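Consider the tokenized backbone below.
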């Protein structure tokens, strides 16, 4: 059952009003930066026969139309790889649905429906997208501190400085220093963001490119927010050669047929590329200094909780 009182209180919440006002400005700044950089904005794909496998490719929501089965987008990764055939640099404000485990209900960082700013750059390598991400975050965070000053003041938020280049830590080192679940502990120790690079193959999806010189190590990265806010951004270089993609899918134990359409398209040729995505609600949470990502949007859906 939906708790109508909680829902009605949300519609009168001054804090939510402030957060959404900041978010509106963030959306405008992100778009401004990306358009200035010459990226084309794609409209989001909501349903498709292919979507990101993520942790378990069988966990996905489906809709049936005209006898065809579509999946609700978990991320537009494959559409990004295809779209850069038309334009060399693209982005999208992409709504994603991910059926997270109920244990994540109170993580403060998970919503089953969220918006990801997702971008891809043809022929780019990791170094270039890291630089691009640093410029994007510095631009947006530098400007929002000024443009949303009244809202941030009312929320009692003082943003920490963002001075790129940010430090880097390998995944291996992060695990050695903080343990397997390093994200939050590391984040809590940080005063500035940090890049985590070189995820092992088993920690990521099949589309992140394997380093040819270091088998099992991927040419990818995450950006971690400081002050305990956790992951900001995730991305990397992509595997674009169909044989290697097929091998990686098989190594994951995924049924090749589930990605048949993607493999057939990849066989026609994909460009080398790199890109990343970042959650808009998580960015809003960080900028506003909020406890819970559910405080950044109306109709927020936490894992396991039925809501509007
Ligand atoms: N957007 C991410 C990327 O570009 C993929 C994801 O959301 N899982 O790598």
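A designed sequence for it:
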């Amino acid at each position: 059952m939906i708790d109508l009182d909680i829902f009605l209180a949300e519609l009168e919440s001054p804090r939510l009003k402030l957060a959404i006002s900041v978010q509106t400005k963030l959306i405008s700044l992100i778009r401004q930066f990306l358009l200035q950089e010459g990226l084309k904005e794609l409209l989001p794909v909501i349903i498709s026969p292919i979507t990101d496998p993520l942790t378990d490719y069988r966990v996905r929501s489906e809709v049936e139309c005209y006898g065809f089965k579509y999946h609700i987008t978990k991320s537009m990764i494959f559409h990004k790889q295809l779209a850069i055939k038309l334009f060399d640099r693209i982005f999208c404000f992409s709504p994603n649905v991910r059926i997270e485990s109920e244990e994540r209900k109170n993580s403060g960082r998970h919503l089953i429906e969220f918006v990801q700013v997702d971008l891809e750059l043809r022929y780019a390598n990791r170094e270039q997208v890291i630089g691009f991400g640093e410029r994007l975050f510095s631009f947006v965070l530098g400007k929002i501190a000024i443009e949303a000053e009244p809202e941030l003041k009312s929320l009692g938020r003082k943003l920490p400085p963002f001075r790129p280049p940010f430090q880097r830590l390998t995944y291996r080192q992060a695990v050695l220093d903080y343990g397997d679940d390093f994200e939050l502990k590391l984040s809590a120790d940080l005063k500035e963001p940090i890049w985590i690079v070189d995820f092992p193959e088993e920690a990521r999806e099949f589309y992140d490119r394997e380093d040819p010189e270091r088998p099992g190590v991927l040419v990818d990265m995450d950006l971690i927010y400081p002050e305990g806010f956790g992951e900001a951004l995730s991305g990397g270089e992509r595997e674009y050669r169909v044989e290697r993609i097929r091998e990686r899918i098989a190594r994951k134990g995924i049924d090749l047929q589930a990605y048949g359409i993607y493999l057939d398209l990849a066989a026609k040729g994909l460009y080398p590329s790199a890109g990343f995505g970042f959650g808009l609600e998580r960015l809003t949470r960080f900028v506003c200094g909020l406890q819970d990502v559910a405080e950044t949007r109306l109709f927020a859906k936490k894992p396991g909780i039925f809501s509007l």
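The longest strand covers residues 113-122.
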